[in-house]
Request: fold
Amino acid sequence: MEEKIKEFRDGIFALRTRRFGTVAELMIRKLINASESLNQFHDLYDEAEGKRIEVKFSTVMKANKTTINENNLIEQCIKATVSNRAMRSDEIHLYNFDCNIQQIKRVEFDILYYGLFFADRIAIFKMNSSDILNCYGYSDFQHKGNKGEGQFHLNPQSIDYHFENHFLQWLTYDELYDLFAC
Reply:
C-alpha cells in the first residue's frame, strides 16, 4: 500500500466514535450523492427517493487472544497497533472479530448503509429499515429501557449472511482518498 494511502487508512483506524462516524457519513454521502439530514435523528437524506438514511460503520480488528494483566500490560499495548490488529478482508474466516452495529432506531430512517473498514478495503452494505427485524442476530433492544433501539453484530458467524443478502460494494482506500482529494 502506497505510504500516503497507508497513513490515510491508519488515520481512519485511529479516529474514535463521532469523528470516525463522520468519515463514514461523508463517504456514503459522496458515493450516493445524498444531502444533509432533515433532522438530528438520521444522518443523510436521499432527495430523489425521499428516503432518510442512517450510516453505521466499524473498523475490523482481530480479537485479542490475551487479557491484559499487570504482567503483560506493556507487551499487550505494544501489540495493539493497527498494523498488528487490523484485519484484511480475506481473513474473515481466519480470525475472530466482532463489530457491533448499534443504536439502530428503525423508526428514524428508511435505509441503513453499514459496513466494515478492513485493513485493505471497505465493505459497504445496504438494508431497508423494514428488513432489520429479519436481520441475522438482530436484537430490538440494546440497553435496559431502550425500547426500539437495537443492534446486530458482524462477526465470523454472521458475515456470510450480510455478504449474501445486503452487500453493495467494495471500496479501496485509494478510491476513498480520491473521493475527497482536491
Summary: The longest helix spans residues 17-32. The mean pLDDT is 92. Residues 3-91+110-128+162-180 form one domain. Helices lie at 3-14, 17-32, 73-78, 82-85, 159-165, 173-180.
